[in-house]
Amino acid sequence: MDLQLYFRVLWRFRFLVALGLLAALALSALSLVSVGPSGVTYRQAEVWSSSAKLLVSQDGFPEGRSITEQYKFVIDEVTGKEVAQPLFASSTRFRELAALYAALATTDPAIAVITNDGPLPGALSAATMSSSDGDSLPVVVMTGTATSPGAAVATANRGAAGFVRYLERGQARSDIPQDTRATVTVVEQASGALLVVPRKLTRPIFIFLAIMMAVLGLAFVLENMRPRVRPVASEPEAPVLRRTA
């Protein structure tokens, strides 16, 4: 590989190479952003994600008790006898409710309550949380995805707060006694966002390399068509020896 030859060709056609470099930079930049009346905007949006967590439980803080098998005595309306009624539901019940609420969180009735103050700035999804062992927990994770961190956080927090309102309204309409209501509490607000889909630079890089390869190839084609003749230094003549008498 004759690097001196390459540099000599590039220097000879330096104006062509400089023009090609400017064109490559401009076209690769325009493939990444667009320029319009509103200014410079990216052609491809990023995707950010943020989550809020809701605990499914009931009044009395059963999560803080070592023994939840406690009972109260009430009068049965049919028999008139005193019967024992559990104070707290089993942990299995809360896990089942969490799975149900995760499915209900994005249904039309729930979304109608969540978006009562206006449309969400992103997309909302919900799922149950699992422990490190893979066991399901009575926790619903509300996730917001949007094209900016702030919009993702706002979507998750509005979804969490709106679902709490949706559940409480349904309980009030059904006249469910307070001591038998399931409670959903926001235990962790969405505060930060994670970049899940960055902008891809594949197209700008490809355009830049393609243009520069074409420009460099054109420079060498022109060099072959019109090679520069370099002067060759003449060799000094050998001295003539004369014989003396």
Features:
245 residues, alpha+beta, Alpha-Beta Plaits, 5-stranded antiparallel sheet, two-stranded antiparallel ribbon, 9 strands
Tell me about this structure.
The chain has 245 residues and is an alpha+beta fold. It has a domain at 47-197: EIF_2_alpha (Alpha-Beta Plaits). 40% of the residues lie in helices and 24% in strands. It contains six helices and nine strands; from the N terminus they run ααβββββααββαββα. Strands 3, 6, 7, 8 and 9 form a five-stranded antiparallel beta sheet that branches. Strands 1-2 form a two-stranded antiparallel ribbon. Strands 4-5 form a two-stranded antiparallel ribbon. A hairpin with a 2-residue loop joins strand 1 (33-36) and strand 2. Helix 2 (14-30) runs antiparallel to helix 6 (202-225). The chain is rod-shaped and about 145 Å long. The mean pLDDT is 85.
What is this structure's SSE topology?
Elements: H1 3-12, H2 14-30, E1 33-36, E2 39-42, E3 47-58, E4 71-75, E5 82-86, H3 91-104, H4 108-114, E6 123-130, E7 136-146, H5 149-173, E8 182-188, E9 194-197, H6 202-225
Antiparallel strand pairs: 1-2, 3-7, 3-8, 3-9, 4-5, 6-7
Helix pairs in contact: 2-6, 4-5
| End-to-end Cα distance | 57 Å
Question: How many H/I helices?
Answer: 6
Instruction: Using the coordinates shown, work out and report the CATH topology of the domain at 47-197.
Output: Alpha-Beta Plaits
Structural class: alpha+beta
Short description:
This protein is α+β, with helices and mostly antiparallel strands and 245 residues long. The chain has a domain at 47-197: EIF_2_alpha (Alpha-Beta Plaits), CATH 3.30.70. It has helices at residues 3-12, 14-30, 91-104, 108-114, 149-173, 202-225; strands spanning 33-36, 39-42, 47-58, 71-75, 82-86, 123-130, 136-146, 182-188, 194-197.
